Amino acid sequence: MSTQAPSHPYEFMHHLPPGSILTLHDVNWAEYQDLLEAVGEAKGLRISFDEGTLQIMTLSSRHEKYTELIKMLITALSLTLRIRILFFGSVTMQKGRKKGNEPDACFYVQSADLIGNRTDIDFATDPPPDVVVEVDVHHGSRQNFPIYAALSVPEIWHYDERSLRIYHLEDGQYVEAKASLALPLLSGGKLTEYLNRSQKEDQYSILLDFEKWLKSLRKRHKSN
Known about the structure:
It is a single chain. The chain is an alpha+beta fold. Helix content is 33%, strand content 24%. The chain is built from six helices and twelve strands. The chain has a six-stranded mixed beta sheet with strand order 1-2-4-3-7-6. It has a six-stranded mixed beta sheet with strand order 5-8-9-10-11-12. Helix 2 (61-81) packs parallel to helix 6 (203-223). The longest helix has 21 residues, at 61-81. The termini are far apart.
């Protein structure tokens, strides 16, 4: 659905069913900020802004299931391999007064020490997350890639229920890569394997197998 911006863009969002998207044009930065303030920490929404185009996406339980599994897999990796990873969920990321977006998940790895135990991130001065995650179930999110590029996000994980593809930022554009830059032991194929299993298996079984795989990597590393 696409329409011109009403006087209060958020007046429609409470009527959107899960898994839908509302696109508004000719929205100014002040209206976008007004919307963010109005919704606060409301769950079940993702809001993006790209030079006057505002999108409000409502999330389905199917979408959230994949997002939560990705977070659990990375948490398991962090604890098992003792890698410091800091999670910031769907934090609102903004660039100047032109672009803003909320990923499905994001986390710091290489930049984790710079962030430390802080809870508030200022994207005007702080580094962007090392990885942002976009999950597509009902509609695409590739239109958000230019926003992440403007924010200098080095890596995107994009999952569409068929495969998880990893993209690295190179010369202002995202290029598909085989493995993660932030976590090189993870490939798109390996992440796809565990995410696709969730279509038939429960999360607990998947996490146990993932932990087993991680421990085998750790054991192999110690023996070398």
